Amino acid sequence: MMGADVAVVLVVFAIISLLFGYTLNLRQIGILIFVIVLQETLFVVMGIYTILWRYAEVLDYFRLGCICLFSGVVFFICDVFVAEPRYGGVACIFFMLLNANAIIFLRVLYRYLQYKVRKGNITKCENQPAVAKRLLIIGAGTASIHVFRETRTSQTGYIPVCFVDDDPNKINRRVNEVPIEGPSDRIPQLCKKYRVDVILFAIPSCGEERRKEILSICSTTGCEVKTLPFIHEIVFHSGAGLFEQARKVKIEDLLGRATVVFDDQSVQAYIQEKVCLITGGGGSIGSELCRQIAKYNPKKLILVDIYENNAYDIQQELIQRYGNRLQLCIEIASVRDRSKMECLFQTYKPEIIFHAAAHKHVPLMETNPEEAVKNNVMGTFIVASLSNEYAAQKFVLISTDKAVNPTNVMGATKRCCEMIVQYMAQQRTQTEFVAVRFGNVLGSNGSVIPLFKREIDNGGPVTVTHPDVIRYFMTIPEAVSLILQAGHMAKGGEIFVLNMGEPVHILTLAENLIRLSGFEPYKDIEIQFTGLRPGEKLYEELLMNEEGLKQTNHKRIFIGKQIKIQEDEFLHNLCGLKEAADHNDKGQILDWLKVLVPTFDHNRDLNTSQILNWREEHES
């Protein structure tokens, strides 16, 4: 490129000499050499030759033009004081403008030729969908233009064929020959018109509700759908381009849940330099608790779980991320084993306990109620009692919306756990006992999403229990963030209720997941209704009838009204439940659960014959 720049200056001098009828002498040759050396030196110093002009921005061209204009000024000064005869002011201005324009045009021509070569290569691949896919970009703002440039200037394997935007001022305009269409409601028609293979949602600043609406429209097209991260999630300094950060649309994106914003400093204040113990630490919620707590520099993190494989997985993940900076201890133990749990409390003296260990599978607990009581109820009582005996600062129980007016054994046992927390909070204790109640989390072990995905991978059918079933959903990181925030707010005895947003129809969830997988519901993948399973409700409730609801400083966290526990009566009933569980007496267990939890209506949605039939079908 340097040789071309020198040639440009020589040609410009030659043109000036011809136009103005001058013959070069030694002084003018000296000025020519001086201007060339000066300009090339400035090009080198200012990094002009380090720029990849294929990706050049406006600032690069501006800097180049300034140097060329400066060379023209120097030429004018030399003409005034050195040249003989003088070229004159007109010739100097002509040199200044012609030199700058010619050198800039040289770069523009190079960039254009590179673009034509690339376009020719893409055109050759256009009939090979596996190599080059036709891309529709939603949005015609800054992020979209960046993505467009990346696809044009690097081998991404995508051809942008259309932009879609709702701004009427942009519709029917063009970006480098690519049309801007709109509004978003026309996406299905536009996908057919432009034979689109992939849709990219490229509006990182878009609100959750509008994002959900547009992605729902995209999911009906049958095209592969990708999205850029939210604006706060984009990594600008990793070396990765914006297009490289695009990911496939997940079912969470179609829920339209607002991003959780909470006070990191307040959470760090009660986690930092504290010994934190998480029971069920290898599970979905427990492992995410470990991940998020690790960010706040705990003095020590103790992970307790009975299942060694999950514990090992999260151990390796945390070691890889934090190395020796995190004091991590893995303990394989059951919360039902008081002796082992007491040994752990004696050894580590935990200050903050998050109790996530529990049996949560509703139908399995219907047929194994003794295990639900032993693990959920008695395990909670053991860990809570030890927290009190060893003067821990906080005990946070992870509860569920199924504890509200329960119709299943699992929900009834979790309501007993909440009552244990409230009972412990009534004692004169240094420990702050609280429970955090929320609904289903997407992608957790045993949740409906992984089941749907397996069924889709197997070609269907996708099984839904009932067409009218609705559930509340949130993501695992969102739930854990709110659990930590609620733990900071705890004073003792509260049942914190998380705002789960709008309820979701499971049938709609299944249909959207099928579409996101590139299939058409009821056409490519069938949906079958299997009937409610033992203990299932059509809908979940987040508050008991006798509880009130009080707003906290966080708009996503509420506090249920505390209910007085009759201590002697509660302990008597709890002992009766334990004895029934120890003898594996299913009938007695159900009777004691109904005594402990008056709102437990085991036959509200299912009767005994339905439970027995379900068990026979699934055991066979």
Automatic annotation (TrEMBL):
Write out the transmembrane intervals: 6-24, 31-55, 61-82, 89-110
In this chain the Polysaccharide biosynthesis protein CapD-like domain maps to 277-560
Transmembrane recorded as keyword: yes
Keyword set for this entry? Membrane, Transmembrane, Transmembrane helix
What Pfam family is a match for this entry?
Polysacc_synt_2
Q: Where is the signal peptide?
A: none
InterPro entries (UniProt xref)? NAD(P)-bd_dom_sf, Polysac_CapD-like, Polysaccharide_Synthase-Rel, SAM-dependent_MTases_sf
* Protein family: Belongs to the polysaccharide synthase family.
Name of the featured protein:
Polysaccharide biosynthesis protein
Q: Which organism is it from?
A: Bianquea renquensis
